[in-house]
Amino acid sequence: MSENLLVPCAQCASLNRIPRDRLGQTPRCGHCKAEVLGERPFELNTGNFARQCKGDLPLLVDVWADWCGPCKAFAPTFAQAAAQLRGRCRLGKLDSEANRELAGRLGIRSIPSLILYRDGREVARQSGALPLHPLLAWLNGQGI
Ligand SMILES: [Zn+2]
User: Fold this and answer.
1) How far is the CA of 51 from the centre of ligand 1 (A)?
2) What is the pLDDT of residues 46-60, one digit of tens each?
């Protein structure tokens, strides 16, 4: 018997129960039928943030804004990391301009900012973009 993990759906944030050994088999959400673990970063917002932080897989948040050049330059790297870490870590993007109050509550002072959550709690934070390999190494240092 494989251990069951609780994983929020990238699309609708419903919690899904997925056996660990099936994480790599593109499981579908029992509620909305979308892929629970998409290959691309998903959108975080004020409405889904608390639910998306939950579950048994860590969540890496990229806090960005449309007017921020470094954020835009970092987007392809973040997308590559999402594809590589699929099934191990969930990657979501939070638009700080569209979710100002939430960004304020998170204490965001500069963007891009990366925040790593585990079990609904912040466990690490990085200000500024990283190239892919240093990013993966940083996550590796956090046990991912
Ligand atoms: Zn869903």
Assistant:
1) 12
2) 999 999 999 999 999
